[in-house]
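hey can u check if this looks right to u? its 151 residues, i copy pasted from the old doc so theres a chance i mangled smth
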Amino acid sequence: MKICIINGPNLNLLGRRETSIYGSKSFELFLPELKDAFPELELEYFQSNHEGQIIDKLHETGFSGYKGIVLNAGGYTHTSVAIADAVAAIEAPVVEVHISNIFGREEFRKSSLLAKHCKGSISGFGLESYRLALHYFLSLKPRKLGFGAHK
């Protein structure tokens, strides 16, 4: 199952930027942990500080056989109608993630233009927010009927 993780602006600075909010680990160090924890998923990672590149990546992955997208649009979450429109337009389901609890921060961060177009939103669990999103996509995987299986 192919899943694309897309990170937006300033997330290339994880581990160095406001560590009291975003933690001390870079995403480049965290990604191998995700790949080890989810060997059944084919994870692709993309990061850009540019709105148009994020939109292009959503278009590329949203129609090309990916079973899901984990999107942390960073500050664009609160401002980008264009990214929200891209999420609404694509076929692949999107889970919105945030490292910090956006509802416990500044007023402008408490709204998401993307949320209504996403399957769900996860925030406030640090980098574990990504792991929770991947668990959601795994839950969609068809299972054999039996003890504990979902019908």
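Confidence is low (pLDDT under 50) at residues 144-151.
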